[in-house]
Design brief:
With 235 residues, this protein is an all-alpha fold. The protein has a domain of 158 residues: MetI-like fold. 80% of the residues lie in helices and 0% in strands. It has 10 helices and no strands. It comes from Roseivivax isoporae LMG 25204. One of its GO terms (biological process) is transmembrane transport.
């Protein structure tokens, strides 16, 4: 068991030297989380636009369900994806369990409701504001959705960043479906948990520092996007 000062010094040295294991874990984390964010946006933004524009029986219940799914417990998501991808599951023939692809699926299931709910709220507010204009122009629903997405692009980027921040910090779901296999499915959060349990704090701390830097970077990006959107609205 390393003492704190020694572990912190070693952690900083690992980051400064660009340790190969550290780079591999960070790169896989970014690949998995960015991929999941992309898929979540491809699902969530159109779904959010659809919910913002369309009016149909059961819409209120569907919106409530999407909002509730934002709080899905990660371990439950991991369990559901595990059952679906296991050999006896409906998608077992794909052979994805304990691969980065399985981790991407789990993170996508986890954050797609977040992107959908945030997109729906943003685009619904815009739709309320521009509804009379859209009616006067006799636009189709599809044209309205496209116009809302273009006008709300800054806020939608914020939704995507929120989803990425949730994905990159996830541990429970990816641990279940990825297995935390060295050089294959080990990401920052699972590596931190493993190294801490082993008492090897240097790598855990170095990964924690990188993860915190990413979290701060995401927050800075969100603030920058919001400021850009605010300046654009006053231009």
């Amino acid at each position: 068991m390393q003492d704190m000062s020694e572990a912190l010094g070693l952690a900083i040295a690992l980051i400064a030297s660009g340790d190969a294991d550290l780079r591999e874990i960070v790169a896989l984390s970014l690949y998995v989380s960015l991929s999941a964010t992309l898929f979540s946006c491809l699902i969530g933004i159109p779904a959010g636009a659809l919910l913002a524009v369309m009016r149909f029986p059961g819409r209120g219940a569907l919106v409530t369900l999407v909002n509730a799914l934002m709080g899905l417990p990660p371990v439950v998501v991991g369990l559901i994806v595990y059952l679906a991808l296991s050999r006896s599951g409906p998608l077992g023939f794909l052979g994805l369990l304990y691969t980065p692809s399985a981790m991407i699926v789990a993170q996508t299931v986890l954050i797609a409701p977040i992107v959908t709910a945030l997109s729906r709220q943003t685009l619904e507010d815009l739709h309320t504001e521009y509804d009379e204009t859209f009616r006067s122009l006799c636009l189709t629903r599809l044209q309205v959705m496209g116009a809302l997405i273009r006008d709300g692009r800054f806020a939608l980027v914020t939704a995507a960043l929120a989803g990425f921040g949730r994905a990159v910090a996830e541990v429970g779901a990816v641990m279940i479906v990825g297995g935390n296999i060295d050089h294959l499915t080990r990401v920052m959060t699972t590596a931190i948990a493993l190294e801490t349990s082993k008492g090897e704090l240097a790598l855990a701390l170095s990964l924690g520092i990188v993860l915190m830097a990413i979290a701060l970077g995401i927050n800075a990006l969100v603030q920058s996007v919001r400021s850009g959107a605010a300046r654009g609205s006053y231009a």
